[in-house]
Design goal:
The protein has about 375 residues and is an alpha+beta fold. The chain folds into 2 domains: about 80 residues, no CATH class; about 280 residues, GTP cyclohydrolase II (Rossmann fold), CATH 3.40.50. It is about 40% helix and about 20% strand. The chain contains 13 helices and 12 strands. Strands 1, 2, 3, 4, 5, 6, 7, 10, 11 and 12 form a 10-stranded mixed beta sheet that branches. Strands 8-9 form a two-stranded antiparallel ribbon. A hairpin with a 4-residue loop joins strand 2 and strand 3. The chain is globular and about 55 Å long.
C-alpha cells in the first residue's frame, strides 16, 4: 500500500470513529436539553463535561485541556428544540468596517455559527449585528453564498449587489464617528468598547437602528448540497461543485437556470425540499440571538418569509433588487418565472436607484418615520 493511500484510509477511519462519537453525544445533548427546556426554544449547554465533549468532537474539534484559556469563555453551545439543531458559536468580536460604495465607517458585531441541522447537514453562517437588534423593528438580510459574484464580480446575478446594499444601509443608519487616534492598539481598544457582551446579548454602545446581516456560507447555488435522507458533513463542497455544474449546464446545453439544476439531476432550489429544510436556518439563528420579533426583511423569496412567520416573527417585507443590468437581466427574469420570487424581472435598475428606494421604504416602516433625505452613493476616490 502506498504511503499516501494508507494515510488517506486511516484518516477516513478516524473520521468515521468521530461520527460514531457524535451520534452518541447528540443523544446525550438531546436528553440534557429536553430536561432543561423550561419552555425555551433554545437550551444552552451549561454542563461542563458535555460542553467540552461537544467542542472536542463537533465543529471546533478542540480539546479544552490543550487550550491556553477555558474555551467556555470563547464559545457558546445550544440546542434548538423546535428543530433539533445543535449550534456552536463564538461569543463575537467587534469590527470597524467601511461600507463598499461610500466607504462610510460603521461598527458591527461579528458572530460565526456552525449549525448541525437534522434532515440537512452542517450549515455555516456568519452574522453581523449593527445597532440595537433587541428593540423595535430590525432590518434583516439573509444571503446565501454566491462565489461567482462575490469572488469574481460576476454581473450575471444580483447577489453581491444585494449584499452591498445591506452594508451600505448598515452604515447609513448607524454611521460611526471614529476618534482621531493614530496608534493602532489604542484604536483597537476603542473599537472593542463599541459593543459589550452581557448574558448572551450583544449591546451596542451607540444603539441606532438595528440591522442584522446573515451570510450562509454553505448555501452556494440556492443550497445545492441537500441530499434526501442524508445528513451531510460537507454541504459546502457538495453545493459548490453542484452549482458549478449547474452553471456549466446552462451554457453547454443552452438551458435556463432551473434547467441547469435538472441537468445535473437535482430539484431547482433544493432548500425547499424536506419541508423547506434549507430555509429554517435564519429563524434558528434569530432564535439563538433572542433578537426582536419585529423584522423589516429585505427579500423576494416567499419561502424565506413563510419560514420566519411560522417561527413567530412579524415580517414587513421590502423587495431587494440590488442592481440589474444587461448581464443580469436573464437570471433576474428566471428568478421570477422559474423560482416564483417576488417583484424581480429583467427591468434594469442602478445601485443608486435601489439605495434611494430602500432608504425611503425602510424609513416608512420606522416609528417615527425618518425624515426624507437623498443619499449620495458615490465611491470614495
Amino acid at each position: 500500500m502506498l504511503a499516501f493511500q494508507e494515510t488517506m484510509l486511516n484518516g477516513m477511519d478516524s473520521f468515521a470513529e468521530r461520527i460514531e462519537t457524535k451520534k452518541r453525544l447528540y443523544e446525550k445533548i438531546l436528553r440534557y436539553a429536553t430536561a432543561e427546556r423550561n419552555g425555551h426554544r433554545f437550551v444552552k449547554i451549561a454542563d461542563r463535561k458535555l460542553f467540552n465533549d461537544v467542542l472536542e468532537n463537533f465543529g471546533t474539534v478542540l480539546p479544552n485541556e490543550a487550550a491556553l484559556h477555558d474555551l467556555s469563555t470563547l464559545y457558546d453551545i445550544g440546542l434548538h428544540l423546535d428543530t433539533g439543531a445543535l449550534i456552536i458559536t463564538n461569543k463575537g468580536a467587534t469590527l470597524f468596517c467601511h461600507s463598499p460604495r461610500t466607504q462610510t465607517p460603521f461598527i458591527c458585531r461579528h458572530i460565526g455559527c456552525c449549525v448541525y441541522l437534522p434532515g440537512l447537514g452542517i450549515e455555516v453562517a456568519n452574522i453581523a449585528l449593527v445597532g440595537n437588534v433587541y428593540d423595535g423593528p430590525v432590518v434583516l438580510r439573509s444571503e446565501s453564498a454566491c462565489t461567482p459574484s462575490f469572488l469574481f464580480g460576476s454581473q450575471r446575478c444580483n447577489c453581491a449587489h444585494q449584499w452591498e446594499t445591506i452594508r451600505e444601509l448598515a452604515a447609513h443608519f448607524n454611521p460611526a464617528k471614529p476618534p482621531a487616534i493614530e496608534c493602532g492598539r489604542e484604536f483597537e481598544k476603542w473599537v472593542q468598547r463599541q459593543f459589550t457582551y452581557d448574558r448572551g446579548k450583544h449591546i451596542a454602545m451607540n444603539a441606532g437602528q438595528g440591522m442584522i446581516m446573515i451570510h450562509v456560507d454553505t448555501q452556494n447555488g440556492m443550497g445545492s448540497g441537500y441530499s434526501k435522507n442524508e445528513f451531510s458533513f460537507d454541504l459546502f463542497s457538495r453545493a459548490s461543485l453542484r452549482h458549478r455544474g449547474e452553471y456549466s449546464a446552462e451554457q453547454i446545453h443552452q438551458t435556463s437556470m432551473a434547467g441547469g439544476f435538472h441537468a445535473i439531476g437535482i430539484t431547482p432550489d433544493p432548500r425547499g425540499e424536506n419541508n423547506d429544510i434549507g430555509y429554517k436556518i435564519t429563524s434558528i439563528l434569530l432564535d439563538w440571538l433572542h433578537v426582536s420579533k419585529d423584522l423589516i426583511f429585505l427579500s423576494n423569496n416567499k419561502s424565506k418569509i413563510r419560514q420566519l412567520e411560522s417561527a413567530g416573527y412579524r415580517v414587513k417585507r421590502i423587495k431587494s433588487l440590488g442592481t440589474v443590468n444587461a448581464a443580469g437581466a436573464q437570471e433576474a427574469e428566471e428568478r421570477g418565472t422559474e423560482f416564483d420570487h417576488l417583484d424581480i424581472g429583467p427591468a434594469f435598475i442602478s445601485f443608486e436607484e435601489e439605495m434611494a428606494r430602500l432608504i425611503n421604504d425602510i424609513g416608512e416602516q420606522l416609528t417615527p418615520p425618518l425624515p426624507s433625505q437623498q443619499p449620495c452613493f458615490c465611491p470614495s476616490v
